[in-house]
Amino acid sequence: MGEQNWTVLVPVKRLDVAKSRLRGTLDDVPHQALALALAQDTVAAARACPQVAAVLVLTDDAEATEALSALGAQVHADPPGGGLNETFTLGGSLVTDGPVAALTADLPALRPLELAAALRAAADGPAGVRRFVTDTPGTGTVLLTAPEGVPLEPRFGEDSATAHAESGAVALAGPWPTLRRDVDVPADLAAAAVLGLGRHTAALARRLAPVRAVDH
Ligand SMILES: Nc1nc2c(ncn2[C@@H]2O[C@H](COP(=O)(O)OP(=O)(O)OP(=O)(O)O)[C@@H](O)[C@H]2O)c(=O)[nH]1
Ligand SMILES: C=C(OP(=O)(O)O)C(=O)O
């Protein structure tokens, strides 16, 4: 099964500005509630993953801090000036032992056992090598891992799959559809609903069909 020694970093932008491409996706649902629900389901799945010792949320948002702490995450503020890669780098520097995984907070269908399989594959790879998992389209990144003592060196952003490969990280090849299913635009939410949404997002998305709530 692999050791329970991973720290998973989950960055959550201030909810009023996060996930702007999803604004207005669900009628009558405040945007911040949707952005938070995506993060809650991501964090709940990571917490339920057998390999994960700790989930460290990085955020400057007070509401996200309260809600994600309630799910058992530790929380630390963004570095001054924020920025996704700067925030992941700060998070990685706070981890004193064990391997580190950087996970985006927009994975509402994520199943703990798929994350477990990806972390096991990362741990079984060649020593000292950073690994990553691309998103469903194959251009972005949902997960970047670094063994203990190896800096994360995150290259998230546009075309991050290429950027991570060029930086020496090696792509992991498993199927893991719920891990790869990030939600950036409205059609992604419908695709995630087909896989089965976590309970926080499902509660907001009842009119998307078919919606299945998944209890982690
Ligand atoms: N803490 C923190 N998280 C960030 C920051 N920028 C992006 N994120 C998070 O990183 C993840 C992936 O980022 P994107 O999908 O590009 O999210 P986004 O910038 O909120 O979305 P768009 O506005 O639609 O581009 C999401 O979970 C964001 O909440 C940042 O500066 N600080
Ligand atoms: C931050 C990223 O992108 P997205 O906008 O797909 O979450 C990424 O894929 O590196």
From TrEMBL:
Pfam families: CofC. GO terms for molecular function: phospholactate guanylyltransferase activity. Phosphoenolpyruvate binds at residues 141, 157, 160. Keywords: GTP-binding, Nucleotide-binding, Nucleotidyltransferase, Transferase. The keyword Repeat does not apply. Pathway: Cofactor biosynthesis; coenzyme F420 biosynthesis. It catalyses: phosphoenolpyruvate + GTP + H(+) = enolpyruvoyl-2-diphospho-5'-guanosine + diphosphate. Its EC number is 2.7.7.105. The keyword GTP-binding applies. Belongs to the CofC family. Guanylyltransferase that catalyzes the activation of phosphoenolpyruvate (PEP) as enolpyruvoyl-2-diphospho-5'-guanosine, via the condensation of PEP with GTP. It is involved in the biosynthesis of coenzyme F420, a hydride carrier cofactor. This is Phosphoenolpyruvate guanylyltransferase.
